[in-house]
Write a structure and sequence with these properties.
single chain; alpha/beta; TIM Barrel; Lyase, Ornithine Decarboxylase, Chain A, domain 1; 2 domains; ten-stranded mixed sheet; eight-stranded parallel beta barrel; 32% helix; binds pyridoxal-5'-phosphate
């Protein structure tokens, strides 16, 4: 964690986590459990740094993609609350998950049978979430194929705990998908009916991600799986605008947790007519002053931001010029006076009155919030700030 050796740092705001959870507690119905989705290294925020803060703020349930992520959560969680794996799990990991009371999705018979036999062998109860295919066509069991799973659950109460019945929507963040989401909800209800025909009732039904929880409040059921929103981002601008319009409010109620900062590594003058950086994409049309910043696509600053991106320095917004390199980028500081080596450069976040949002990256580089965040490398030091 020695920051001297790193070319940038990520700051994570503790108060923003609390503010966002307060907002979520207003929009998520009482008695609906919020599962904090921390896949993708907590959407780039860093599992090890984020989990303790999230627990301190009040989150009690975590969802991850893989056993590797679940393991990392167990290493830093002090409340030792439930953890749910929504995706990848190989055979060894099934054994580990069952032994450690980690909940996980079941979406094929292979995993179902292995789970049952390992639970028997270990004399343990596996906590399973049966995932239903409702129209996304990713993982999940088709409604007509649920019978063998339900029979096994019914016949093995000592080894299978029916922790959840769940599905995932194929794009609740866009109104374009409205009809498809409605069809998925109907399919899920069919699955629920089938489950009750077996006299079974899962501990929790859960279908909603951030966008669904906001746009389709009825989808909140017993639990919601919230990712992007807890980090202070609406899934898309569409969801934000709809929320503001519905509630007749004008300010974004969420606060971004993350800021990304680096420093000036070098400063120099360039003569009129010279090209800057690789190739010929930027020609100095007048005498220029430039600064080199030790951040590149290798650190998650997309190359498509070449001649497009902006950063903050000395309280001003300045453009990235030339191509973004693997480990460096160049900015135009011609109109700024007195830039010095070591001056702070803000890639995401605030400086003075100005702010670079994650969304602005998206517009320029055609990346989703989700993509930019999860590409932030694990080894950039995270610093907790208020
Ligand atoms: C990522 C994910 C979520 C959370 O999605 P957000 O849009 O970030 O809220 C919920 N459920 C599943 C299955 C996921 O993979």
């Amino acid at each position: 964690m020695n920051q001297v050796h790193h070319s940038s740092r990520l700051e994570i705001s503790r108060s923003a986590i609390q503010q966002n959870l307060k907002f979520l507690n207003r929009v998520i119905r009482k008695n609906v459990l919020i599962s904090s989705v921390v896949k993708g290294n907590a959407y780039g925020h860093g599992i090890e740094d984020y989990i303790p803060l999230a627990e301190e703020a009040g989150y009690e349930h975590f969802s991850v993609f893989s056993a590797e992520e679940a393991y990392r959560v167990t290493q830093v969680s002090y409340k030792k609350g439930p953890i749910m794996i929504m995706g990848f799990l190989d055979d060894d990991a099934i054994d580990w998950a069952i032994s450690h009371d980690i909940e996980f999705y079941i979406f094929n018979l292979d995993r179902m049978n292995r789970t049952l036999s390992i639970a028997k062998k270990r004399k343990k109860v596996a906590k399973i979430h049966l995932e239903v295919e409702t129209g996304m066509n990713r993982t999940g069991v088709n409604v007509p194929d649920l019978d063998p799973y339900l029979e096994l659950i019914k016949a093995n109460p000592a080894h299978l705990h029916f922790a959840g019945l769940c599905t995932h929507f194929a794009g609740a963040e866009s109104i374009t998908n409205y009809y498809r989401i409605k069809q998925q909800q109907k399919q899920f209800e069919k699955a629920q009916n089938k489950v009750s025909l077996y006299g079974l009732s899962p501990e929790r039904n859960h279908v909603a991600c951030s966008a669904a929880a906001l746009r389709y409040p009825k989808s909140q059921l017993d639990m919601v799986r919230l990712g992007i929103i807890q980090y202070g981002f609406f899934p898309t601008n569409e969801v934000l605008i709809e929320y503001l319009a519905k509630r007749k409010v004008s300010n974004n109620p969420l606060k971004r947790l993350i800021s990304w900062k680096s420093r000036v590594m070098d400063v120099k003058d360039v003569k009129t007519g010279e090209f800057i950086g690789y190739g010929t994409s930027y020609l100095a049309g007048h005498p220029m002053k430039i600064a080199i910043v030790p951040i590149g696509y290798g650190q998650g600053f997309s190359r498509s931001l070449s001649n497009q991106g902006r950063v903050l320095i000395r309280g001003q917004r300045v453009p990235v010029i030339g191509t973004v390199n693997m480990n460096m980028l160049t900015i135009d500081i011609t109109r700024l006076g007195g830039v010095e080596l070591g001056d702070e450069v803000v890639l995401i976040g605030k400086q003075g009155d100005l702010e670079i949002s994650v969304a602005s990256f998206g517009e320029l580089s055609d990346q989703l919030n989700y993509e930019l965040l999860t590409r932030l490398p694990m080894d950039i030091p995270r610093l907790i700030v208020d």
